[in-house]
Amino acid sequence: MKQWVMSSILMVASLISVASCSDEKEVNGIKEGVEVDAKLSIGATAFDKIQTKVADDYISDLYVMVFDESGDLLTHQYYSGLAGLSGDITISTTSGKRYIYGIANLSTSNLSVDASTLNNISSVDGLKSVLISLSNNTVGNADGKYLMSGFWCEKTTDETAETCLININGAVTSLTGATGTLKLKRLQSKVTFNVFYSGNATSFAITEVNLRKVPGTSRLTEDGTSSVVSSGYFNVDKLATNAGNKSFTFYMLENKQAAKGTPSTYSDRENVSNGSWVYAPDNSTYVEIKGHYVGTADRYTNGVVSGSSRVDANVTYYIHLGYVDDNLSDFNSLRNKDYTYNITVTGVNSLVAEVEVSGDKYDRGDGDIYYADGENVITLDAHYSQFVMGFTYEQLGKEGLDFSVLVKSNNTSGFQNADHDWLSFVENPNGVTKVVSYPGRTSSKLLNTDEFWLL
After folding, report:
1. Cα 295 to Cα 107, 139, 214, distances in angstroms
2. Under a CB-based contact definition with an 8 Å cutoff, are residues 323 and 286 in contact?
């Protein structure tokens, strides 16, 4: 019995000796390397709104990594089965100066990172080098979850991790004692376009929306630099519009791009020379909005404005993302944003873009423009419609008078001069201004579009 007591005393004395030798380093009065259960406050930062805000902050799982002051991994822990996490978590680690990073919602409908990949990371630099790619070329958000990443910091606006201090009582503070949070940001942003019309436009209807240069790959973590890391660009044709056909929404990874030069007007942002953008970066994301415009526009003679006329036009507007705070050189689309672009069509080749505050005039539109003197631009629904078209001798004798039939159907891409075999014409007798009776499908009086133009 005495021998057992002596062994126990020696063992305790040995442990006390080891502990007193290993914890001599202190940081801000805190012993370095003491095993603690650190308490972390977790927060999914709200979308950094550009105009509106959504609170998609659901967290289903979380991977936390603690690094020492040199950036080497000390510990990591995976938390699964969470249901909309909020509040605090506890992680077993050691006291001292630390960097803390977190990854949330490791698997979503279009973005995923394996826990095994994170298990193999041994340094902050290794974490920053991880790239994430979309599982398919999509701009939707089917399950409503977002892959998030972040780090411990005091302010939600911080773009780089801040050194924190893990105290021996488990509290996590800044080096000055201030509180902070493991702040998580979504890798993707939400982008909404609202399209209006005013000014010379009496109506404008979206017929097609296309996205160009959408990034398929980006960094997992935010690095606080303007470096271009996006890749795997793809296009989206015929993006679905929202109810009313006046707006559309999509989700995309960040795409940081530097302007080629310094544009002086909003119109310069969309300048093209020899098939290339003059100021816009080659891989910056932009939107093509195609639509049907009715209103007035300048008429030109020998390149000089000679008046204005009512026009009916199929137009395409090109709009690069960015332009936040009226910054003409901004072609970026950053993570964790809720961008709202209010686009007002003011003319056949002009629009006003608003991103948070008013922009200025845009003068870069493509399309087919049809000038109409009088009221001879007619829009109809193809359900046995009949109408009378009247022309004066002055109109028929005008140089450059044109007649066009544009159809939008399941067999066309927007409004096209195609698929109009169902359209027929009958020449009214002299002095008859009312719709004449239908002569029958096989009647020689029925004229197709080509025969009508030869009258």
Report:
1. 49, 33, 33
2. no
